[in-house]
Design goal:
Rossmann fold, 4-stranded parallel sheet, 2 domains, 11 helices, single chain, binds phosphoric acid mono(formamide)ester, alpha/beta
């Protein structure tokens, strides 16, 4: 059984394939236990988790809260608006005060890349990255890969196509690291302003012609345009973007029948993905959200120092 020695989960880039597999297997065990009716576990009883979200979130914040509750932890939610960050307190001072109140785990979402690492180096409690700027969103990538493995039975050898605003996407970077470490082939598609060729240095292919890539895809992962991180116009209009890079009904028809359609959310229906395609049988968008719970339980469980040998092995092939 591989071991986990980290107090923090900051980025997939720092993990090796065995650590990623351990997170996925631990998540699978929690999901299986849930389907057998064992939803609540005692592992984090007496521990306190603080969700410190300095940027908005629906899926990540709620699933970290639910994951902590399922592990019997106490949970406090803090948003930037309702904290003393608005009065000029620094992130470090806010976090030090949270730690002084005996928090065991801080889950941080922040608009600045590197903010979770900054805290992890200064705190003795665990820090889990719930998304930092355009840098990393490790639990999103883990739940994406978990969903792929669950649906297709493997990750190695698959062709995963990530489409859209890669430049500003922490989800894309974390997915690329995870998929490549597990042996998948990754193609990025989008306008040159949002998908520069420099991404090829990560070990992926960059393509401009979406239609030519779709027939060989095992998975397509659509990303929304992240207007909140962009400082200028990166394409002429949303209509033109959709015409060239949107997963329309016509384009979806070019995909193999068993191709998974994924999106981390939030979706901008009619822009990066047609509304009917998002709700179609090949879409696993809501499965991704469901799997986020088990994945975040696994991340909390392992970073809290719990022993993965205590959980049963999952029974599906990698
Ligand atoms: N995918 C994702 O991170 O969604 P939220 O911003 O709602 O957490």
């Amino acid at each position: 059984m591989p071991s986990w020695t980290r107090k923090d989960l900051l980025s997939i880039a720092e993990l090796d394939a065995q650590e990623i597999q351990l997170l996925l297997d631990t998540a699978a065990s929690f999901k299986q236990a849930g389907t057998r009716g064992v939803k609540k576990h005692d592992d984090l009883r007496g521990r306190t988790l603080v969700n410190l979200f300095v940027e908005p979130s629906t899926r990540t914040r709620i699933s970290f809260e639910l994951a902590a509750l399922r592990l019997s932890a106490d949970v406090i939610n803090i948003s930037a608006d309702s904290s003393s960050l608005t009065k000029g307190e620094t992130l470090k001072d806010t976090a030090k005060n949270i730690e002084a109140l005996e928090a065991d785990i801080i889950v941080l979402r922040h608009q600045s890349a590197g903010a979770p690492l900054f805290l992890a180096r200064r705190l003795s409690c665990s820090v889990i990255n719930a998304g930092d700027g355009a840098h990393a969103h490790p639990t999103q990538a883990l739940l994406d890969v978990f969903t792929i493995r669950e649906r297709l039975g493997r990750v190695a050898g698959l062709h995963v196509v990530i489409i859209g605003d890669i430049l500003f996407s922490r989800v894309a970077r974390s997915n690329i690291w995870t998929l490549l470490k597990l042996g998948a082939r990754v193609t990025l598609v989008g306008p040159s302003t949002l998908v520069p060729r420099s991404f090829e240095r990560m070990g992926v292919r960059v393509e401009r012609d979406l239609d030519s890539v779709l027939p060989t895809a095992n998975v397509v992962n659509l990303l929304r345009i992240q207007h909140e991180r962009q400082r200028r116009e990166y394409f002429p209009s949303l209509g033109e973007y959709t015409a060239l890079f949107g997963l329309t009904k016509q384009r979806a028809a070019r995909l193999p029948d068993d191709c998974l359609i994924m999106h981390p959310g939030p979706i901008n229906r009619g822009v990066e993905i047609d509304s009917e395609v998002a709700d179609s049988g090949r879409s696993v968008i809501l499965d991704q959200v469901t799997n986020g719970l088990a994945v975040r339980m696994a991340a909390l469980f392992l970073c809290a120092g719990c022993d993965p040998a205590r959980i049963e092995e999952p029974d599906f092939d990698r």
